[in-house]
Write a structure and sequence with these properties.
The chain is α+β, with helices and mostly antiparallel strands. It has six helices and five strands, in the order ββαααβααββα. It has helices at 23-31, 35-38, 42-53, 67-74, 78-90, 137-145, and strands at residues 5-9, 15-19, 62-65, 94-101, 107-113. The strands form two sheets. The protein has a three-stranded antiparallel sheet. Strands 1-2 form a two-stranded antiparallel ribbon. Strand 4 (94-101) and strand 5 form a beta hairpin. The longest helix has 13 residues, at 78-90. The chain is globular, with a radius of gyration of 17 Å. It starts with a strand and ends with a helix.
Length: 146
């Protein structure tokens, strides 16, 4: 095994391999200063990282995400899962491009990963310029007085 390949176990105890030298693995450090990354919830960060780790040039930069699938994989409620997917889309990390039927026939969203090109190279996008909403001073002051 090459020295830059790191084995780790996922939830099911199955061993997965991450190529630490792969281009998408190096992007994380560049994103840490972006509002679109800093404001992600821990669940959203895990989903984004898993999407990128599962990226391959064969499947390109498309991924199927459903609230049910995220809820089941990360052991969260359906509403939390749906909010996590919507937050990634709002910040410009992913974009819904269609629907695809799942194994049970229920349609799920097909999303394009906007932070990585189909060939694995870096790509610019909304995530680089997205800004967190400024807190409303009036509401924050009234909340402090209560």
């Amino acid at each position: 095994m090459p020295p830059n390949v790191v084995p780790f176990r996922n939830d099911g105890g199955k061993t997965r391999y991450l190529d630490a030298g792969a281009s998408h693995a190096r992007f994380y450090a560049d994103w840490r200063h972006l509002d679109a990354f800093k404001t992600l919830s821990p669940l959203q960060r895990v989903i984004l990282q898993d999407i990128l780790m599962e990226f391959s040039r064969v499947t390109g930069n498309e991924v199927r995400l459903t609230g049910h699938g995220v809820a089941k994989r990360y052991h969260v409620g359906h509403r939390t899962a749906a909010k996590a997917i919507a937050g990634l889309e709002e910040r410009g990390w992913i974009e819904r491009i269609g629907l695809s039927p799942g194994p049970t026939g229920q349609a799920g969203g097909v999303y394009q990963i906007l932070c990585i090109a189909p060939n694995g190279s870096r790509i610019g996008g909304l995530y680089q310029t997205w800004s967190a909403p400024k807190p409303n001073k009036r509401n924050s002051l009234s909340g402090a007085q209560n």
